[in-house]
C-alpha cells in the first residue's frame, strides 16, 4: 500500500509539474458548459411566422388574426416570390400559405389548401400545428353546424368569439432547454475525460522512454503496482472533472440537470472507468508517444462524434445510429437521457451492466497486451 501511495504522489507531481497542466485538467471541462450555453442560448425566443394569403376571404383573414394573437409568435405577411429567400436567410422560421379555396374548404367541412413550410423541422412546425389545427377544427365544427351557409357561419363564429369562457391557466416550466444544455455539457465532458485519461496514461510511455519505468521495476515495486497507481490517479482526476462540471452546472449557472446529482455523478464515474480502460488500451498497443497520440486522435474524436456527444444522435443517418450502439459514449448519454425522463436506476440495470462490460473489456484487453509485451527496448 505504501508503494502505491508513493507512486500516486509521484504521478501527480509528474502530471502537475507545470502549473498550466492544472488548468488543462481542471478548467477545460468548463469549456463544454460555455459551448452548451452558446448552442442553446437562443431557445425559447419568439417564433417568426411568414404568411402568404392567396385566399383573401373572411375565414383566411380570421385564421391569420388568430395566429397574430398567439404568444411567442410574430406574424409577418410576405409575398409568394419572397418565401424562399425569407426561409433560407432565417428571416422567418416557417411560412404558412393559404391557397385559393381555403375558406371554401373550411365551409364544406374538409379543410384543405393550406401549406406549411420550414427548414427547421418538427421543432417549429409541430409547435405551429398544435395551435393552428385545433383552431381549424373549431372552424370546421362551426361550418358543419352552419351547413355551409356563410351568413350562418359568420353569425356562429361571432358568437363563438364573444363567448365568455372561464379558464384557469397554470404555467409549466419548460425543461427541454435545460435537458439539452445538460446533455451537451456532459457530451463535451465525455470527450475531455477521454483525452485527459489518454494524456495521463501516456506518462507510462514517457517513463519507459526515459528508462524511469525500468529503474522502478528493479526495486520491490512491481509493474502491476505501477499500472494500478496510474489508474487510481487517472480516476481521481476524472472524478474531480465530473464534480467541477456538475457543480458549475447546478450552483453557478443554475441549470436544472433534471437528474439527482448523485445519479449523474455515478453514471459519469462508471464512464471514467471506461475512459481509463480505453487510455490503457491505447498505451498497451503503442510503442512510442507519437503512436499513442495518433491512436488517441483516431479513436476518441470519431467515436465521440458518432455517439452523439456534439449533436443529437437522431439527426444522423440510421446506419450511423446503428454503429453508435456499439460505443460506450452512446450508452452513457442514453442512460443520462433516460434518467432525465424519470427512469429509475433499477429499470436501467441493462444500461449499467453494458457500461461495466465495456470497462471490463477494455481493462482485460490492456492487461492481456501488457502481459504479452515484455520488451525492454528503448522508446523513441
TrEMBL record:
Q: Which Pfam families match?
A: ABC2_membrane_3
A GO molecular-function annotation: ABC-type transporter activity
Q: Which InterPro entries match?
A: ABC-2_transporter_component, ABC2_TM, ABC2_TM_bact-type
Instruction: Report the Gene3D superfamilies cross-referenced here.
Output: abc type-2 transporter like domain
- Superkingdom to which the source organism belongs: Bacteria
Q: Which residues are in the ABC transmembrane type-2 domain?
A: 150-373
- Give compartment(s): Cell membrane
Q: Which family does it belong to?
A: Belongs to the ABC-2 integral membrane protein family.
Query: What name appears for this protein in its UniProt entry?
Result: Transport permease protein
Amino acid at each position: 500500500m505504501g508503494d502505491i501511495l508513493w507512486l500516486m504522489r509521484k504521478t501527480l507531481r509528474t502530471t502537475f509539474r507545470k502549473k498550466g497542466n492544472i488548468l488543462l485538467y481542471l478548467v477545460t471541462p468548463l469549456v463544454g458548459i460555455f459551448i452548451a450555453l452558446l448552442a442553446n442560448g437562443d431557445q425559447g425566443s419568439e417564433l417568426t411566422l411568414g404568411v402568404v394569403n392567396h385566399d383573401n376571404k373572411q375565414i383566411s383573414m380570421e385564421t391569420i388574426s388568430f395566429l397574430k394573437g398567439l404568444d411567442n409568435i410574430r406574424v409577418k405577411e410576405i409575398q409568394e416570390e419572397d418565401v424562399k429567400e425569407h426561409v433560407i436567410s432565417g428571416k422567418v422560421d416557417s411560412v404558412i400559405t393559404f391557397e385559393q379555396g381555403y375558406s371554401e374548404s373550411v365551409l364544406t367541412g374538409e379543410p384543405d389548401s393550406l401549406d406549411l413550410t420550414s427548414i427547421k423541422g418538427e421543432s417549429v412546425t409541430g409547435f405551429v400545428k398544435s395551435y393552428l389545427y385545433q383552431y381549424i377544427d373549431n372552424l370546421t365544427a362551426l361550418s358543419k353546424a352552419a351547413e355551409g351557409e356563410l351568413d350562418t357561419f359568420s353569425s356562429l363564429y361571432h358568437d363563438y368569439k364573444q363567448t365568455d369562457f372561464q379558464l384557469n391557466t397554470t404555467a409549466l416550466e419548460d425543461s427541454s432547454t435545460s435537458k439539452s444544455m445538460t446533455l451537451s455539457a456532459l457530451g463535451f465532458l465525455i470527450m475531455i475525460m477521454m483525452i485527459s485519461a489518454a494524456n495521463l496514461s501516456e506518462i507510462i510511455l514517457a517513463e519507459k522512454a526515459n528508462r524511469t519505468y525500468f529503474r522502478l521495476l528493479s526495486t520491490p515495486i512491481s509493474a502491476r503496482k505501477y499500472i494500478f497507481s496510474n489508474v487510481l490517479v487517472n480516476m481521481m482526476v476524472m472524478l474531480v472533472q465530473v464534480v467541477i462540471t456538475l457543480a458549475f452546472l447546478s450552483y453557478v449557472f443554475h441549470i436544472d440537470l433534471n437528474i439527482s446529482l448523485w445519479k449523474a455523478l455515478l453514471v459519469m464515474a462508471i464512464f471514467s472507468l471506461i475512459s481509463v480502460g480505453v487510455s490503457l488500451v491505447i498505451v498497451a498497443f503503442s510503442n512510442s508517444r507519437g503512436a499513442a497520440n495518433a491512436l488517441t486522435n483516431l479513436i476518441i474524436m470519431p467515436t465521440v462524434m458518432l455517439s452523439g456527444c456534439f449533436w443529437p444522435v437522431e439527426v444522423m443517418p440510421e446506419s450511423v445510429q446503428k454503429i453508435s450502439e456499439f460505443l460506450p459514449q452512446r450508452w452513457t448519454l442514453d442512460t443520462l437521457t433516460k434518467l432525465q425522463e424519470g427512469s429509475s436506476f433499477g429499470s436501467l440495470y441493462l444500461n449499467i451492466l453494458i457500461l461495466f462490460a465495456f470497462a471490463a473489456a477494455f481493462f482485460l484487453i490492456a492487461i492481456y497486451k501488457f502481459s504479452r509485451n515484455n520488451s525492454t527496448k528503448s522508446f523513441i
